[in-house]
Amino acid sequence: MKTQVAIIGGGPAGLLLSQLLNRAGIATVVLERRSRAYVLSRIRAGVLEWGTVEMLREAGVGARMDREGLVHDGCWLSRGDAMVRVDFKEACGRQVMVYGQTEVTHDLYDAQEAIGAVVLHGVEDVALHDLTGAAYVTFTHEGQAVRLDCDYVAGCDGFHGVSRGSIPPEVRREFEKVYPFGWLGVLSETPPVDHELIYASHERGFALASMRNPMLSRYYVQVPLTDRVEDWSDAAFWAELKLRLPSAVAAQLVTGPTIEKSIAPLRSFVSEPMRWGRLFLCGDAAHIVPPTGAKGLNLAASDVHYLSEAFKRAYGKGNTGGLESYSADALARVWQAMRFSWSLTMMMHRFPEQSDYERRMQETELALLERSATARRLMAEGYTGLPF
C-alpha cells in the first residue's frame, strides 16, 4: 500500500486528522488495533473547548453537535456549602460545549465513510521504519502482512501505542506527575443535578457533577488508588456523592441505576519532542492530563490543528516550515493546558498527609476566585481554551 500520511490510531485524534486532510485532498490510511465497536464503546471526555467546536465544524462534522450539544456559559466551584460561579462568557467572551467524545467519534466515523477514507480495524503488529528517511509502516491485517509506504506518519495511538516508543530513548525527554488518587466515575440515565458543571472540594475528597445530555448524567468522586469498582455499590456511590456536594445541590440530586462505572488514575505526562524525522505525535501518544480541566480531547484537537495546517501548507504550497516547527508550536499550548489542569487539580482535591497550611492555600485560591474578576478571567481563559 502507499499513501501520503499514515495515521496510527483510529480514535478521535486520528479520525479528525484524517477528515481534515482528506477534505484538503491529502490521502491518508488510518490503522486501528481495535474494532470500531470497541472504539465507540469507550467512555471519555464530554467538554469541548470552543476552538475544538469550531474545528469540528470546519471538518464537516458539527451538524449533530450543534443540534444536540449543550452550550455552557460557566461552571461552579464549591467548598462545603459555599459556591462560586465562574461566568466564562462574561469573563472572557467564550463558552464551552458539552458533547461526549463517543458522539464526536461517531460523527467522525460517519464522515470518513461518506468521503471514502481508508480506515483499517483489527490491525496488529504495527511497526514504524526509516522515520528519518523513506518512511514506511508494516502491520498485519486479516492475517496478511502489509507494508504501507508513506511520506509521513502521524502517531495518534495513545499512551500505550507504538508511536512514541519509535522515537529513540536518547532523543525523548519525559515529564510525569502521578497523583495519589483516582476518580470513580459513573454514568446514570438521570437528569443532571444542575445545568452547569459543579466542581466540589470537600474534606472527604473531590467530586464532580457533570452530564452528557439532559437525561444522561456523569458523576465522579475522588477515591484512593487501592479502591476497586467492586468496592462501590450504587447506593454507596450516591451516598458519598451527596456528602461531598453542597447540601442544597445534594437535595436536588436524582439517583438511579448506573449504566457504567470505572476508576481512572490521575497523572500528568508530557513527552518531548512531538516530532522526530517523519513521525509526528498527536494527543495521548505525547501527553496525558488529569481530567480535572477537561483538556485531554481538546489537547488532541489542538495538536491536530497544528499538524493538519502544516500538512496543508507542505502539500499545497511546498512550505514545510509548519512541519519543522510543529513540536514547538504544539508543546507551547500543551504546557499551558498542563499548568491549568495541574492548578485546578491541586486546588480541588484532598491529598494524603496534607498539612493545615496546604488546606488553607486551597481555601484561599477559591476565595480569590470569588472576589477577583481577574482570577475568574484567567480561569475562564484556561477552561474555554487558549487560542491556537
What is the CATH top level name of the largest domain?
Alpha Beta
* CATH arch. level architecture of the largest domain: 3-Layer(bba) Sandwich
Q: Examine the coordinates and then state which fold CATH places here, giving the name of the CATH topology of the largest domain.
A: FAD/NAD(P)-binding domain
CATH superfamily of the largest domain: FAD/NAD(P)-binding domain
Q: With helices defined by DSSP (H or I, 4 residues minimum), what is the helix count?
A: 13
Note the main sheet. Answer: 8 strands, mixed
Strand pairing plus helix content: what structural class?
alpha+beta
Q: What's the Cα radius of gyration? A: 21 Å
Fraction in helix = 25-40%
> Residue-averaged pLDDT, rounded?
96
Question: How many structural domains does the protein architecture include?
Answer: 2
By DSSP, the count of extended strands is 20
- Straight-line distance between termini: 34 Å
Strand order of the largest sheet: 6-5-14-15-16-13-17-20
Shape: globular
What is the percentage of strand-forming residues? 25-35%
Low-pLDDT segments: none
